[in-house]
Amino acid sequence: MKKMTYLSLCILTILLSCSKDNAPTSPEVLDDTLYFPPINSNTWKTKSVSDLEWNTTALQPLLDYLEDKNTKSFMILHDGKIVVEHYFSNHTATSPWYWASAGKTLTTAISGIAQEASLININNKVSDYLGIGWTSAPLEKENLITCKNLLSMNSGLDDGLGDNVSTANLKYIADAGSRWAYHNVYVKMQDVIAQASSQSWSGYFNTVLKNKIGMTGTWINSNDFNVYWSNTRSMARFGLLIYANGKWENTQIIPENFLNEATNTSQSINQSYGYLWWLNGKPTYHLPGSQLEFNGALIPNAPTDMYAALGKNDQKIYVVPSKKLVIVRMGNAADNINFALSTFDNDLWAKINALIN
After folding, report:
1. Could you tell me which InterPro entries the record lists for this protein (predicted)?
2. Residue 178: how many CB atoms within 10 A of its CB?
3. Which of 3, 165, 196, 249 has an alpha carbon 20 to 30 Å from 85's alpha carbon atom?
4. Best CA proximity match to 108, nearest among 153, 141, 165
């Protein structure tokens, strides 16, 4: 009887072990590693809202809200995999749309890559690369402006003269580093990199970033500065690269230490601004076109560790390390025409929170 009992226990143990090995598990248990979509393929792995145990009843209200707010495309990635991908108003997965100022962060990325290649040093004067007289400021004031000032929006040049960045329009208003103002002069970093690399801006961009992560799209010149146009997945690929600390699979594309600088406060005036990245969770912030300081977080409903690429008329890339999320929104202005941030950000995050929490 004892032998039979021992034998039965052995068989039962084996059966339980096999059952455990074959038991269904969620994708997060099976594979929680960061995923990168293939560079030369349209395939992209997905997760479902239910896989993540999110609130499935909140998804349709979120999509309805996005449609009501003039959205053309919306994506949520979780650890690189697509959870939500939706297109509105005849916009499709292959339709291009403009990044507007969300594309400023592409210039940030290329600046970090060029510095790692010893082509530039962001602490150097802009005139070291472009020569003197690239502004109409007095020479001693022009020589105060570094590449880092361009990336931090504290060049001291007058932001009230329109979008044009011709020499005549780049006028002194304050010493570099003493005043934060949202200004298109950042595009001079593209000229710096083109000069230092002996290539065109778009050629260098394509070689060191676009082609390496499988982006599509192109730079289109508008009012003497470049605006990037691409499909939504290309915007999401860039967001994923940033979420992965500048790495694509096993290749470090943007230096991690530079990216860490870029996504933290870059100067003492606007705590919610890095190198062309907007930062949430800081005690104060400034807005484009204003010298006022506002108390509180940039987007109160969003996670405090979130940082964002924000473009005119509500082009968005949100990166949230604590939630393993990259979120992309493209479209027309949700409400009123705006430079970058709008009340839509906070309202949208209320809807996103209802889904993910």
Report:
1. Beta-lactam-related, Beta-lactam/transpept-like, Diverse_Enzym_Activities
2. 13
3. 249
4. 153
Tell me the two tokens of residue 337. 């025409």
Report pLDDT for 31.
53
Radius of gyration, alpha carbons of the chain: 24
Instruction: Report pTM.
Output: 0.90
pLDDT over 60 at 26, yes or no: no
- Kindly state the tokens that stand for 55: 């609130």
The CATH H-level superfamily of 56-356 is: DD-peptidase/beta-lactamase superfamily (3.40.710.10)
What are 67's two structure tokens? Answer: 């449609």
Neighbour-count burial for 90-114, b at 16+ CB within 10 Å, e otherwise:
ebeeeebbbbbbbbbbbbbbbbbbb
Average pLDDT, the chain: 91
Give CA–CA dist 114/122, Å, rounded: 10
Tens of pLDDT, residues 28-79: 444 568 999 999 988 999 999 999 999 999 999 999 999 999 999 999 999 9
Where do the structural domains in the chain lie, given as residue ranges? Answer: 56-356
Locate 104 and state its tokens: 């400023």
